[in-house]
Every structure is written in structure tokens, then in C-alpha cells.
Amino acid sequence: MAESMKPLAIVTGASTGIGRELAKEAAQHGYDLLIVADEPEIEAAATELRASGTKVEAVQADLATTGGVDQLLAATKGRPVEVLVANAGRGLGKGFLDQDWDEARRVVDTNITGTIYLIQKVGREMRARNAGKILITGSIAGFMPGTFQAVYNGTKSFLNSFSWAIRNELKDTNITVTCLMPGPTETEFFERGDLMDTPVGQQKKDDPAEVAKTGFAAMLRGDGDVVYGLKNKVQSAMANVLPAAVTAEMHRGMAEPGHKKQ
């Protein structure tokens, strides 16, 4: 069988939520897909995407480990990656001293270690060809101290900063780096992160399909970053000017556990 001539997009964390919607965006824009997540649901996502006629390969791998990233990269079989959507992420609520250490470290290893290892590996190949687009899912959470989400917000602050740094390093190339910074979005994130007894876990959230559409369009344009939604834009702007002590208290109001659903 002849190899597809469509460009290849990798989408991580594509089994549910924003990642799944980003994979749909890539399919609609004419990319073959290599999608990955650390759970069996990635196969269901692949089946859904193939229904539209898109060529999709699914990999179940733990992207918190370099071995899992290497497993994903091996699945490209040396094919050039035109688009890398580094979306895989993990959240964790409750006070830092009350969190299980292994769970807290897994947030760091998934959100930071595995993500930047993957970006370096794919980015080097893009640089060799002087072509490619990278979309990193950061968060408006990265703009403020994450009271009761201290580790998670810290990882997103890292990604927001990292994205702009490597974008500047690559400014004289044909490679673009875009950071998608969503606010609270209707995904499984809050249930998985044990945040359902918090105000933010119970509030109305953004549509992941709309968030993905906004982020993918920004990547195609080559924008440096994009914040989805007016409310999130206002909140991120406030976080940039208010003292950290104030925004930490604001975050407490959103993420403090023990709230019963009204």
C-alpha cells in the first residue's frame, strides 16, 4: 500500500477533552494522525476519528516517562512530524501537604518532563527540515499561584514561559510555537484531579471543542499564544498586574475543597 502523502500530526492526551477535540481539528485540516494517551480510551478516540476517513494510528503510552515518549516516537517510523500538539496533562487538587507524593510527582512528570522531552525530540527533527508547528497546552492557571492546586499551576506556569522562550529561540526559522491557555473547560480533568468539591469544579465551564478550534487556528496562524474566552482574558490580565498574594487568595476562592454542590 502506498504511504499517505498527507502531513502527519501528533496529538498527545487525545483520548478525551481538549486533546480529543484538537485531534478532530487536525483531521479536519487534512492531517494524518498519531494520537496517544495513557489509557485504553485512546482506541475509541481513534475509531471515532477514522470514521471521517482520516488515517489514524493510536498509541497507549505513559508520557510521564521518557520510555513512553520513545514508544510514541517509534510509532512515527521515521516519518516527519509537521504538527506537534503537546496537550497531555494531569491535574491534582487539595493542599500540597495533603497530596500523595507519587501523584504530585506524576503531575510534574506528565506536564513538564515528558512534554519537554517530546518537544525537544520532535523539535530537533523539525529544525533539521526547517519546518513545523508546535502547539503547547498551557493554562491561564499558570498566571497565578495555585492555592490548593500548587503543583498543577506551577507546571502550567513553566509551560507558558517555556513556550515563549523556545519560540524566541526559533524566531529565525520556519518553525512556530504557540501556547494555548484555556480556562476551566468541560472535561474529565476536574473529576480525575479530585476537584469536584471545589467551586471551580462545580461551575459552568467552556466547551472543549471551541477551545480546541481557537487553539488550532492560532497555531495555523503562527500566533505566540491564545487565551480562549473573554472571561479568561480578563482574569489573565488581572493576574498579570495584581500582587501574587491577592491572586493566591483569589485562587483559594476557586479551588478550596469541601464545597457542596448547590
UniProtKB/TrEMBL annotation:
Domain Ketoreductase, first and last residues per copy: 7-187
InterPro entries: KR_dom, NAD(P)-bd_dom_sf, Sc_DH/Rdtase_CS, SDR_fam
Record key words, sorted: Oxidoreductase
Record protein name field: Short-chain dehydrogenase
GO cellular component: membrane
Pfam families for this protein: adh_short (PF00106)
CDD domains cross-referenced by the UniProt entry: SDR_c
Family that this chain belongs to: Belongs to the short-chain dehydrogenases/reductases (SDR) family.
GO molecular function, one term: oxidoreductase activity
PANTHER family tied to this protein: DEHYDROGENASE/REDUCTASE SDR FAMILY MEMBER 7B, SHORT-CHAIN DEHYDROGENASE-RELATED
Species assigned in the record: Muricoccus roseus
